[in-house]
Amino acid sequence: MVGGASVRFLVVVLGVVLMLAAPVSGVTSLAQTTSPPNLIGESLFSFETTLAGTCDNRSFTFGAHGPASGPYFGTFQEQGSITLVSHLTGSSPIASLSAQFDILAQDGTQIVGTKEWVSGVSSGSAFCRAGGPAELRVNAYDLQYEATITTPDGQTCTTTGGATLVLEASTEYIGGRFEEDFISGTTPSCSGGGAEPPGEHPPLPQVVCDRADVRSPAVRQAAECELYPPGGPPSEMGW
Predict the structure, then answer these.
(1) Residue in 51, 91, 69, 96 with CA at minimum distance from that of residue 180
(2) pLDDT at residue 233, as a whole number
(3) How far apart are CA 153 and CA 195, in angstroms?
(4) Could you tell me which of 111, 116, 194 has the C-alpha nearest to residue 158?
(5) How far apart are CA 55 and CA 131, in angstroms?
(6) In terms of CB atoms within 10 Å, which end of the chain has fewer, N or C?
(7) Which residue ranges make up each domain of the chain?
(8) pLDDT of residue 91
């Protein structure tokens, strides 16, 4: 009878341990997080653009805000500057272009970044019309951007790539057109977020049973064994 009770006791204890281990394993799998999407396919669009500057000095600042769509649906705002090669009215190559952007997604993800014209990589041109309030049209391709993505779970990720920009604006009024598309991007490199390294999980709690109760019929109940958190008293199994 004692042997039978011991076997039953062992089965009960093993059952308790397995029951405890199962949810921990489940939590571990849920804790594994993946990198958020990069910016490929993200599109920023606005009819609310501002422009300041003149064709004569070849330098302008611009701003835009509006909806964002693609991997990150939400809103955006962007401010930047552009310098033209020619100070004459008409078409001109672009000498420099830089901008800062901020995207706030509906799920709470925030993306902040910069983009710039890189000689030998970027291409495009601008058209400036003077003779009154300046009007500027810009078509720029392969602008190079760097962005930091902060996710709601605390991950901080960085990504780089290329973007296109179409800008039509006037110094006379707020309006025109702003359209920006992210056409390439690296896989985000992330840190933080509380994700556990693959293959690791929190230590299991310890199940400690009283040796003196081995022969008691009540030992078949889980209540006869006490549960200690990790780092508690050493396990002392009573069979």
Answers:
(1) 69
(2) 55
(3) 9
(4) 111
(5) 9
(6) N
(7) 43-191, 206-239
(8) 87
pLDDT at 156: 97
Rounded CA-CA distance 219/235 in Å is 17
Do the beta carbons of residue 85 and residue 204 sit within 8 Å? no
Q: What is the pLDDT of residue 226?
A: 52
Instruction: Please identify which residue in the block is written with the tokens 């993946």.
Output: 34
pLDDT at 227: 47
What stretches in the chain show pLDDT beneath 70?
Answer: 1-33, 88, 194-239
Are 157 and 151 in contact by the 8 Å Cβ rule? The answer is yes
What are the backbone dihedrals phi and psi of residue 198, each rounded to the nearest 5 degrees, phi first? -55, 140
Which H, E and C letters describe the chain, residue by residue? CHHHHHHHHHHHHHHHHHHHHHHHHHHHHHHCCCCCCCCCCCEEEECCEEEEEECCCCEEEEEEEEEEECCCCEEEEEEEEEEECCCCCEEEEEEEEEEEEEEEECCCCEEEEEEECCCCCCEEEEEEECCCCCEEEEEEEEEEEEEEEECCCCCEEEEEEEEEEEEEEECCCCECEEEEEECCCCCCEEECCCCCCCCCCCCCCEEEECHHHCCCHHHHCHHHEEEECCCCCCCCCCC
* pLDDT, position 30: 41
* C-alpha to C-alpha distance for 185 and 148, rounded to whole angstroms: 12
